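User: I'm preparing a small set of examples for a lab meeting where we compare how different chains pack in three dimensions. I only have the primary sequence for this one, and I'd like the structure in token form so I can line it up with the others. Please keep the answer compact; I'll paste it straight into my notes.
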Amino acid sequence: MLCHFAVLTLLTSTLLAQTSLPDSKGPQATPTLKTNTQLVIVDITVTDSHHQPIHNLKASDFVVLEDNVSQTIKAFEEHVSAKVPANEPAKPLQTPSLPPGVFTNFSPVPAKETLNVLLLDTLNTPLRDQVFVRTQIKQYLKNAPAGTRIAIFGLATRLYLLQGFTSNPDILRAAVDEKGSSKASPVLNDAVGGGNGAVPLSQQYDEGFGGLNDLRVTAVVTELKQFEAEQQGYQLQFRARYTLDALNQLARYLGGLQGRKNLIWFSGSFPINILPDGDLKNPFAIVASSEDEFRATVNLLARSQVAVYPVDARGLITSPTLNATNSINTSLNGSYARNPANFGKDENKFYNQMADEHSTMLRMAEQTGGHAFINTNDLSRAVSDVVETGSNYYTIAYSPENTKWDGRYRKIQVRMPQQGFNLTYRRGYYADDPQVSHRNSTSGVVSSQPVNSYDPIRAAMMHGAPDPTQIIFQVRTVPASASTEDKLAPGTAAGPDSSKLKPPYRRYNIIFAADPRHIHFTQSAEGNYIGQIQFVTFIYDQDGQLITRAGNEVHTKLPPSEYATLFRGGLHFVQQISVPDKGSYYFRIGVHDMDGDHVGAVEFPVAAVRNLPPESVSSTQPGNTPR
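Assistant: Understood. Below is the structure token output for the 627-residue chain.
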């Protein structure tokens, strides 16, 4: 076991003053239309035949149906992009001023302002297309409207933040040009692009010996093709998993930020589903569907008000079958010359793959209220269109007439009496019961080898990942004493490679203060409030290796009076962890609502708190667990 379970308490007023939550009267707490268990929120963009936004519509101009049943609109709001004069730069956002040793995952963004996110996908995109994407983005930034706030993320085998939200085009251009932001994908057959990838071994063998018409050669080629197809299938599975992990993390990062978020995803391919290949000895060996993960991720994006705009980074696409690099296939001894049917098979395979990838793009856009850009070389114009139309929209909220939470997919239809308008919005949702626990029994908090790749707290605790903001919290971190020790503190477990763990160790106090408004509590028949929360701390070295970890599960049973107290002072918890005293290390600290499936995390270097005066927490040590 990782460590004993700690208990929940409210800390003393002195500590509370040091570790207070962001002011609830600030911009981050301005609730225009906030999701709750019985409210469906739909963002709608309305444009004319020239793709220009339509303004000044009223709630009475819209008809909302769910599974063909008319719904009553409970809330309605129009959002219009703020026009900032070109000679008047947007006001910089102020980062909260915190005392030494106090950190937060609160992200300062303007209230009610649409946020735009560029995702540069190097995992699924050849280097040639990555260069094209960056050139097009810089072209857009030359003429971007003043005040447009954009964040830039990169996707390799993990998600990483290149630049937080800013309206400064110079900073954004620098992020796009950042050295190392272009990377060759480790899971693409043609990582450079242009059809210059390695020639498959089966093709080499076929070219060398296929002319002999030997049945043994044919058998070897068949086995090699099967092996290569299965290897490619595994690569696609890894790409799908990494990609969905990244989108899941992005949704959780953006979930705590109010309003609509436009996610513009530049990718060279979209490997969600793999279809069986009838030409193989075992057609189903390469089949891998990520349908369940796709559904969960799309739901999370929709709940976080993230509209996804997939952009095919390859631009206009033509079949590579007759490329110059494939001329060997059409030569006298080429496989196409010996077997013309191979040409048709390769053509069909290419177009089926394109249809499948484009279908995934269209589904992702449709189910989140975005739009897919396919077969266009003007990626700069695509960004401009998304920013303009995605910043002018209407938000509608309704309580479903069907109150049965059965997990079924429910279609959303929005109609207008006026003709000639184009409406874009998410087309449905899965009616999962909000009162049912989302806890994952295979949580990776206490395991160095998590079983479930989609465990939210595992993803939230990845070194260098964006800080998720579904649960806003502050954490105060100070040394527990001035002395070091040769043994790990109780409750601290070693990472997967114990050889990297060497004494002496210094013990640190981790003092949490979380916003309870973002944590799901269930009221029991007796009136008590039940919650299940995880508090987690990971220590990473400078190479991203997990060194030590500590984690606690807290199960609350709060009477109404104590539950009300939480909203005046926050949800507090004290944890301790040991860190090697020599070397460079990083804290990654997280909170996980196990029932509501919300997470929050923050990361900072140990060096930032190593020299702070030691403090004892004995005076604020938790008492009895509330029951």
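A couple of notes for your slides: The chain has two domains: 13-28+454-620, 115-387. The longest strand covers residues 529-541.

User: Perfect, thanks.
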